[in-house]
Design a protein that fits this description.
Strand order of the largest sheet: 1-2-3-6-5-4
Structural class: alpha+beta
Shape: globular
Largest sheet: 6 strands, antiparallel
Helix content: 25-40%
Radius of gyration: 14 Å
Number of strands: 6
Length: 128
Amino acid sequence: MQCPKCPGTLEEKTYGRKITVHRCSDCGGLWCKPDVLLEMKKEWMSEAVLDSGDPKLGEALDQLDDIKCPEDGTLMEKVADERQIHIWYESCPTCDGMFFDAGEFTDLKYDTLMDRVRGFVKGRRPEG
């Protein structure tokens, strides 16, 4: 699959028995389904193994709009995490796939006081 944010290729990566994601060969973004995301959040050290891209590049790519689902080509929706509103990711309304820029999953996995502060500074993702 083609990365929705850069010219890279989404390559299959596994961790443990239950986790299979697609990670971009160039930007390090992660593509997964909601059930896999739940397993990733539970699994020890999954962020260190799977979310290995450069967070600064991920932050720059987070500004891109109108990206298409790598699985079915549907225009993806821009979503802010409910608990950590500073984390902005893309979700496909058709297949429920999600794309996290490099560093976003690691940030999502650990909900800290600093995350709350970042949420107030960055705010919610604009609708559109």
